From TrEMBL:
Keyword Ribonucleoprotein included in the entry's annotation: no
Domain BRCT: 239-317
Alphabetical list of SUPFAM superfamilies matching this protein: BRCT domain (SSF52113), Ribonuclease H-like (SSF53098)
Pfam families reported in the protein's UniProt record: BRCT, RNase_T
E.C. designation(s): 2.7.7.7
Lineage of source species: Bacteria, Bacillati, Actinomycetota, Actinomycetes, Kitasatosporales
GO MF annotation, one: DNA-directed DNA polymerase activity
UniProt KW keywords: Exonuclease, Hydrolase, Nuclease, Nucleotidyltransferase, Transferase
Keyword Hydrolase: yes
Exonuclease domain sequence ranges: 18-182
Region (Disordered): 203-238
Protein name as catalogued: DNA polymerase-3 subunit epsilon
Primary enzyme class: transferase
Length: 330
């Protein structure tokens, strides 16, 4: 691919001034899982590598799928805790757009670790290379990192090792960035909100403190009241959300799922745990994923919105048409 400096196309002035390509390996995919290793490749405005950084992280618990990341309890025992590497990591993230493959996941894991450490993550925006490859219309057979790497001729040396995955992604991101710049394309940047709202727990975990096995989330779970408004039906494109609409969520979200659901409830929406013919809309950042909710939504013709569009609509939800209607059941 030709470098943009070999063409007459100017570099878009609105593009970010720097990027932090990130990969984290974790003990699992749940809300209470922990990071076991992290890597960052810092890139300049045009995607050229400035430096890289890698660290192991002691998760203070079972390391999870060792057969995937290869990091055993013995290897991680002497590794630093996340609060001990948070400052070094922050130096590499500050002032840059976080870039990752399925960025919602990497960001959510980092945000939770920062919240546990009572430190604010210095990240304002993220860019998912899956979303970028879709915008570019790359002819990929699937959304795996290996497929993106193969498309650009990048050789993977150690899959699921955070440093090598970050290197591979950095090398594949640069030509993607240049293709977007050449076409004058707007980058699919999403807002990153630090999870400061997770400080609801009575006592924040101390460094070295082992959380109880029954603790499934940082934020105490509680049952929400039933929505007091009638269901006005499906969401219609171009119109505002209306109080009482039934909203379901699928997949990773940039804002913690529970917090996003809270905001929906506060706006007067009904948060549904599943998709049915009564669902007003489904919110997902990966509408092509073959999850049960997206499959049902498509079969029912339920409208599907990405998180960024949904959160924008949440700012101005229309009042319910009628009152004094029995609340909907969960």
């Amino acid at each position: 691919m030709l470098d943009d400096r070999q063409t007459a196309t100017p570099w878009p002035a609105a593009y970010p001034k720097g990027y932090a390509v990130v990969d984290v390996e974790t003990t699992g995919l749940a809300r209470d899982d922990r990071i076991v290793s992290a890597a960052v490749y810092r890139l300049d405005a045009r995607g050229d590598v400035e430096d890289h950084w890698y660290t192991l992280v002691n998760p203070e618990r079972d390391p999870g799928p060792v057969w995937i990341h290869g990091l055993t309890s013995d290897v991680l025992e002497g590794a630093p805790l996340f609060p001990e590497v948070a400052e070094q990591l922050s130096e590499r993230l500050a002032g840059r757009v976080l870039v990752a493959h399925n960025a919602a996941f990497d960001w959510s894991m980092l945000a939770r670790e920062y919240a546990r450490a009572a430190v604010t993550a210095p990240v304002e925006q993220r860019l998912c290379t899956i979303a970028l490859s879709k915008e570019l219309g790359l002819p990929l057979p699937n959304h795996k990192l290996a497929s993106l790497a193969a498309h650009f001729g990048v050789v993977q040396q150690h899959a699921h090792h955070a440093l090598d995955d970050a290197r591979v992604l950095a090398e594949a991101f640069r030509p993607s960035l240049h293709a977007a710049a050449r076409d004058g394309m707007r980058l699919p940047l999403l807002e990153c909100r630090p999870l400061t709202e997770w400080y609801d727990s009575p006592v924040a975990p101390r460094v070295g403190h082992q959380p109880s096995h029954g603790q499934n989330s940082w934020r105490p779970s509680r049952k929400r009241p039933a929505c007091p408004y009638p269901n006005p039906g499906r969401y219609e494109s171009g119109k505002p959300l209306m109080q009482g609409m039934r909203v379901a969520f699928s997949g990773d979200t940039s804002v913690d799922r529970e917090l996003l659901e809270d905001r929906a409830v506060e706006a007067g929406l009904h948060v549904a745990t599943s998709v049915s013919r009564l669902t007003s809309l489904l919110v997902t950042n990966d509408p092509d994923a073959a999850t049960s909710k997206t499959v049902k939504a498509k079969s029912f013709g339920t409208p599907i919105l990405e998180e960024s569009a949904f959160t924008h609509l949440l700012r101005d939800v229309a009042p319910a048409r009628a009152a004094s209607v029995p609340p909907q059941s969960s």
